[in-house]
Amino acid sequence: QMNLLAADIQKKVQDHPCYSEQAHHHYARMHVAVAPACNIQCNYCNRKYDCSNESRPGVVSEVLTPAQAVKKTLAVAAAIPQMSVLGIAGPGDALANPARTFSVFRELQQRAPDLKLCLSTNGLMLPEYVEQIAAANVDHVTITINCLDPDIGARIYPWIFWDHRRIRGREAAEILIAQQQKGLEMLVARGILVKVNSVMIPGINDEHLKEVSRVVRAKGAFLHNVMPLISDPAHGTFFGLAGQRGPSSEELQALQDACAGDMNMMRHCRQCRADAVGMLGEDRGDEFSMEKVEAME
Ligand code: CLF
Ligand code: SF4
Questions:
Q1: N or C: which end of the chain has fewer CB within 10 A?
Q2: What ipTM goes with this model?
């Protein structure tokens, strides 16, 4: 990233399990599900939620108040020594719930200063909150960017909620894309590490993601994570994508390889839930339900 020295970057990523392939063998992350509302609609969302803003079959996360989230984070950090990162990644959008999100960050900055703070967003409100993100010491931000072309965007996003009204179609995608790109540039200028997540939707944005990868790299994103659309009609409401298939693992890998010429690619993402706890690929969320955390005292 342009304004960061290699040594600074190394320091920021060395104990973050998502930003460093190495670190994920040694460090754990947790999410607190404090952000129930969302300000856009993705055609692939079934509100089962996670950092990638990706739909994944599972049980809906237990939404916590900020106070509960802080309590849970402190309990988990005390119980799991490898815990290095606290992320807010849903179940809706972290920045569509700014009071809740920043209340958790502010409190943890005081009470658990060693924990790295991480945020995942669809990017719509990002430019408005970059200052607050920096002030809260959030060092890692993930933006889910699925396209740069509003005609493609119109097939992925049926609407956004913007300026007190619902906007649809191409116009909605145009605004979302502009906000994501502006947010990315602003974060890079502040020296905050940015990871871009993209959901690969065969026949819709798969070829286009190579261009997305080139552009976000040129703007200073640190890492690109292309994730497969998880298509399981038995579980989800795939609003505008009924019958849409996900990519095969070969297709996914081919696209990741094609992007890798220009960009650091993440290949160890486990598409976590919005309340995941533990090492990547491990979910100990059930051990730390709010009921159990309360009982720990
Ligand atoms: Fe969470 Fe996301 Fe932070 Fe990681 S997850 S907010 S960057 S702490 Fe990681 Fe999970 Fe993949 Fe996300 S493996 S879904 S990339
Ligand atoms: Fe669902 Fe996330 Fe998209 Fe909002 S941003 S509609 S929560 S996938």
A1: C
A2: 0.94
